[in-house]
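User: My advisor, Dr. K., asked me to get a structural model of this assembly before our group meeting. I'm new to this, so sorry if the format is off. These are the inputs:
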Amino acid sequence: MDSTDLALRAEGICFAYRGEEWVLKDISLSVPRGKATMIMGPSGSGKTTLMKVLAGILCPQHGRLEVLSQEVGKRTRRSLYSLIGYIPQQLGLVRNLTSLENVLMGALGRCGHGRVMLGLFPRHEIEQAHAALDLMGIGDKSSEKVFRLSGGQRQRVAIARTLLQRPRVVLADEFVSDLDLALASEVLGLMRQVAEREQMTFVANMHEPQLVQEFADQVLILDHGQIVRRFPTDGPQERLPSEVLQ
Amino acid sequence: MTLVAILLGIVLGDLGFFDVARLTKGLQNMGILTWEMLPPDASVLPVAGKALWETVQMSFAGTILGFLLSLPLSILGTRHLFSAPISNLSRLIAAGIRTVPVLLWAILFVILVGLGPLAGTLGVAAYTVGYLAKIYAELFEGTDPEIVEAVRGTGASRFHLVRFVVLPEGANAILTQLLFMLEYNIRASSILGFVGAGGIGFVMQVYLQTLEYRRLATVLLLILAVVLIMDGLSAWMRRRFLLTAQS
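Assistant: The format is fine. Below is the predicted structure of the whole assembly, which you can bring to the meeting.
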């Protein structure tokens, strides 16, 4: 595959937290543009760490990372923020702020420090934030504080925040793990729909094989910090090998 | 546990806690003092009330001034937002301020700006800065790193993070500590008049030195009333403004 067809490319990524053993060992992967890639693996296999490395939050000790054909180094990590949207496992929402305020944080990267520091965002950003909440089906919750929302509604706020950021790649770390299967499927469906419409690449850590089978174009299996299996599929609905489902 | 009990026994002995004659004499004196305080002399209410109002003003102004100064100091002292030299310097300044007790701050400001409530207010403000800067820096450092990472990932600057993550996430604890500080400062300010820094302390000192214990009793009852009112106000504000739902 041509490198211009790739959203993410990692080669020989190694990462260890300070003074500890390697969490990621020689990880190489390619994520095609506009596709949904899901990473599976047992707890402690390094999925979250890999996601943080791909998002530019953690800097690997070895290896090479390219996002949309741009090489990412220590100095260029900030440039990733406009390309990558990151949804952590607990969503990273500020509980004391409203849904709208949380969504507007997706626009902080292109807003200065003047009026925004007083909470006064540009009108077009506010309109887009409202539109993102409407798209997620929670437009009526815009002035509700996040701590009053249900789990599914919070998930939608987190996705709306990522949409407002307008990233090319969305990285989500087990962000539906707290939801029941039906609701998780609904949220992922919404995410996939938006990703296809906006031509975004979607990479997610996932525990639930049924969801992976339903939504993944490519599956990577991580174990002990290494990618041990890859299942490039021709699209969703293709059956995963039985060992993955087990 | 046994070791702690033995150690406590030795320390209490050193401090005179097992001097039965002295303790008995103390109890007798307490009885006499209480008897001489009754009934409280209400004729001093206008004088004591005015002085107490000055104490409340000193505490309120000093607490708010100290709070406003403590916020930037604590934000700069937050290690995951600012580099080690900046946060360490900020924490060192806060620790230095905190080392000096409020009474000594009052004496210092009496020397600097002269007798009266201005010195007391500045003393309360200085003490509040040291205390709140430490508490708030610890609080801000405890902000959920996942939220910081998520918002930083949108391209937010560290000032955005302070405004949109650190302060809103810590809002409950910020208010709780501020109210606690206000309550504490009202009690602490009551003695600042002993060193000429204004407020009810000066009146108390005069009644103590002239052995007018009935008048002193009135002053103490007034302070108790104000502290109880403050407790009630704090409880109301907590109920009114703090989060009540769990995540």
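One thing worth pointing out at the meeting: The mean pLDDT of chain A is 84.

User: Perfect, thanks a lot.
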